[in-house]
Amino acid sequence: MKPSSPSSSPPAASPSGDATAPAPAADDDGAAAPAVTPAWLDLAGEVCPFTFVRARLALEALPLGAELRIRVDHEPARRNVPRSAAEWGQEVVGVADADGGGWVITLRKRVP
Questions:
Q1: pTM confidence score
Q2: Is 108 noted as a catalytic residue in this protein?
Q3: Is domain 39-108 in CATH 3.40.630.10, yes or no?
């Protein structure tokens, strides 16, 4: 696997808040390599229960094993999104402070 060039910022969510992921990089032979960069969902400004509903819809659209990073700035979402995702059977990889305030919740899809 080729090293990728560092980026100063994560992939941005679309204006509608849909999860976005960068396009897969191409191998030396021009074939598309699988995407290893997590999808991002920016839910800053959203409140519960909409944070989990939008996170669930975004995760459902991803393949098994994919990671979704969700930025939230509503304190109850910091607790509720990981708890609800775990109850649903998804893996909670972590919750970290986000640059500029809020938190980034990283989930890995384990069940359809």
A1: 0.70
A2: no
A3: no
